[in-house]
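Bumping my old thread because nobody answered last time. Still need a sequence for this structure:
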């Protein structure tokens, strides 16, 4: 029998628990976790993502700052904005919403974020820690998927996990997190040959391609766990995943829906990691 992995329910539960922890932190230490989100220009999708992050941060009781800057801001000016938040002790997490305009080098911008406040986990110091098996801050989407797998008690030890997609945001960090839990990991991409032959050997299949309904049931072994990261719009503007949910659900043992699967966990992990930075700052004061 197939089980639906409900990210909406888990995210709501984690955010409720976080609200209580934030309240306790305020009462005990007078400390409020602070999250600064920087949005460059007016990309409509980015505006929606940033608004959602702002609302969720406020809802759990954080200090939430959204810094909106013009599309034509220079790289140097943007780095100055980041520098301000690096120095601001009331800010524990800094996030620069991607993508950035073409005239700005996103690698340089990410490098400018204090690695201790890099709650998106994109700074090379944090990706290095992840590859060395000493994760501090981890990219939020794969971190959220690990929470989902743990909550549904999905055994990873010795299992074959296949990931479709090798982005720095999802595929690569996902591989490392699964490896750390003793899965045998195969990372596939657009040049992989006989993709469906590879994916059909997966006990756990993570799909992060960005093409609506790409994965049919011919890609999935009976009883596999299927995690759909994709967020695409169909011709009617409806949000759909990378997996053909209606067909694959009959083959999978566990599956995430879109929406309501991986998506809600991404913001939750961003909030959780920001809280953890604030908590570490309390421990520093106590020492
Ligand atoms: P991305 O940077 O565009 O990467 C897509 C990956 O898919 C690339 O590695 C690409 O291979 C691979 N790919 C493309 N076509 C393929 C094919 N025909 N066969 C096999 N592999 C193929 O995308 P991303 O940022 O990882 O995001 C992927 C999807 O997840 C998008 O729909 C995005 O909106 C969604 N997403 C959702 C969340 C969330 O919170 N739910 C968060 C992040 C992303 P190459 O490397 O060879 O080009």
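Sorry it took so long. Here it is:
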């Amino acid at each position: 029998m197939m089980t639906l992995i409900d990210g909406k329910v888990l995210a709501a539960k984690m955010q409720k628990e976080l609200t209580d922890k934030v309240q306790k932190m305020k009462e005990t230490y007078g400390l409020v976790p602070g999250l600064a989100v920087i949005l460059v220009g007016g990309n409509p999708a980015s505006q929606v993502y940033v608004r959602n992050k702002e609302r969720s941060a406020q809802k759990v009781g954080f200090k939430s700052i959204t810094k909106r800057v013009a599309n034509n801001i220079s790289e140097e000016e943007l780095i100055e904005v980041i520098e301000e938040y690096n120095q601001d002790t009331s800010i524990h997490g800094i996030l620069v919403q991607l993508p950035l305009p073409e005239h700005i080098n996103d690698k340089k911008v990410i490098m400018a974020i204090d690695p201790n406040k890099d709650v998106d986990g994109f700074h090379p110091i944090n990706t290095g820690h992840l590859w060395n098996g000493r994760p501090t801050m981890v990219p939020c989407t794969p971190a959220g998927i690990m929470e989902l797998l743990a909550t549904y008690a999905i055994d990873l030890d010795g299992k074959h996990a296949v990931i479709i997609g090798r982005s720095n945001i999802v595929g690569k960090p996902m591989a490392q997190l699964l490896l750390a839990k003793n899965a045998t990991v195969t990372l596939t991409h657009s040049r992989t040959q006989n993709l469906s032959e590879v994916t059909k050997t997966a006990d756990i299949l993570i799909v992060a391609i960005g093409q609506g309904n790409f994965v049919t049931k011919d890609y999935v072994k009976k009883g596999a766990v299927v995690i759909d990261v994709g967020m695409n719009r169909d011709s009617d503007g409806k949000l759909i995943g990378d997996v053909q949910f209606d067909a694959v659900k009959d083959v999978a043992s566990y599956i995430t829906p879109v929406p309501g699967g991986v998506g809600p966990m991404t913001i939750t992990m961003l909030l959780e990691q920001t809280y953890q930075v604030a908590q570490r700052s309390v421990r520093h004061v106590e020492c």
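Residues 141, 164-167, 169-171, 188-192, 195, 208-211, 229-232, 262-263, 266 surround NAP (CB under 6 Å). Let me know if any region looks off to you.
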